[in-house]
Amino acid sequence: MQLPRITPIEENIVCTKKGEISELVHNTLSNQEFSGVFLKIFAKDDTEKYYVTLLMDKRKLLASKVSLLSSKTEVIGDESLKILKRIVNYPLVVDIYGLDEIELKISITDNLDIYNATPKIEIDKIFEETIVENKELAKKEKILEKVLKKKEVKKKEPKPPSTVEEKVLPKKEKASKKSPKPKKRKKTLEPEITVEIIGGEIFRPILEEYTEEVLKEVQTLDGVSPQKVKITGEVGSGVIYLHVEFYGISEEEPNTRQMSERRILYFINKHLPIIWRKAGLKPILSGAQAKITGPGESFEDEKKALESKKKIAPRKIESNISVEAHESIKPYFSTYAKAILQDIQNAGIDVEKMHLDIKGRSEHEINLTLWGKAPGKTHAQARSIVESILKTHAKEISKALNKYITVHRVEINLEETEGEVSESVKQILSKKEELEKEIEKLLKEVGVDELSSLTEEKRREIKESLIKPKVEPAIEALRRRLQNMFKDLPNSVFRWMRLDWELHRNEVLITLEASFDKRGSLIGVVSDDRIIEDATQVLNRAVQEISKEHNVPIKIKNININVR
After folding, report:
1. Three-class SS state of 249
2. SS3 for 365-395, per residue?
3. Ranges of the chain whose pLDDT falls below 50
4. At CA 94, angle to CA 15 and CA 231, rounded to 5?
5. Quick count: other Cβ atoms within 10 Å of Cβ 211?
């Protein structure tokens, strides 16, 4: 469906339940500025990938379209609603747009064919339980009613005489005396389950489902009673790091308990794909522990010992370097930290303190925080230098350890070098004053009226000669920044750009011409307008950053972006 050029309120929201997407729609419509909403929904199953677009006002559905990406067909009307009701229980990735009254009407007129084919049903009915489920529940309720009625009839039947009871009871007592047998430990006690998640509370139900599947497997082990399960998850960029602890009790021999512990660790690894399927995040198991003790033993002491080993405390390598990593990889990254520090200092950055935080065990993310000074360099220049050094060393250690290593976060805290800046400003101002005095002398000697035009031109030339040395580095930095940012745009391939500038009064006016190619994605090829909009936003952000960093007023005069 076509949509006016507007930016989404929220993008890439993961909804695992139909109630979440319903709540999302109602929260958006509660804003008085919006008269309607536009939804883009992506889902998939074993056979098909679905891309759904919905247009709604405050009460009802106006237009619905489903694109089946694998079979390359499009569905509208009643069929699209059937598909939507079927996939609404799947994990969904949602983009939501708020529409005012004019934008809503424009969207309807742009999609009249879809609007006419779509049944106008209420929003709540879209996310109701399906009719099939309700029928099945009704059948089950009827069966239960019949069973209960039969039980009531049996209870109401007349009891036999008391004399018969006296004869029968002793026989039952004898049978009961023969029946007692040694009972095994029951597994019906519910274990204590603790789920802690950092950076993504929406994924808690998925981790709870994963825990339930693991416990189902544990119940198949003879004589093992789960007592406590603790899962700690930390959401990263496209991944989730997990630490799983399991504690239980068993009456079996120590050797059998050890075998059960190994089986439980296997179950913990076996069900990790549930998280990948439901959350769309790659699960990385940073640690897993299983401890089964005897009935009279306590695992609290063992638990404290394991927790003390598990804690990853920052380790000081030198007075100004600290490394936080798992014990198995800490020696490698300690040497790595020293080499980083040496290269950063050789690049002209004085490091006062540096902290490396390494996440993961089989795959690693590097997070660096640095405090120091960078005389003669801007914050962006210093950050670029540090990132390039980090990436170079990451490649080297990746080859050495044969592991996938990425640079995730770089934070640089630099002290301002105000003294140097103020001195350069003073020099420029003093030159300007000397030139103005020389011009005043010439005007007095020859006459103001005759040389007024020449002096104005001279002033302009002097002004340009003073400003140009400051502007040219800023424009060059802007050119490099734009090239890097254009390359990172997700929906397009950057080809080339041309950046021109001119001085106008006290401002620098820029003209940009750039070319992009469309790039395919899971939801198809995006529109030209979306690519142009993304590139324009990147340009505005880069201009603001460079203006602040170089203290040069830069404004956009003209933009010409071509999409092929």
Report:
1. strand
2. EEEEEEEEECCCCCHHHHHHHHHHHHHHHHH
3. 129-138, 155, 159, 161-188, 305-315, 418-422, 450-451, 522-523
4. 30
5. 22
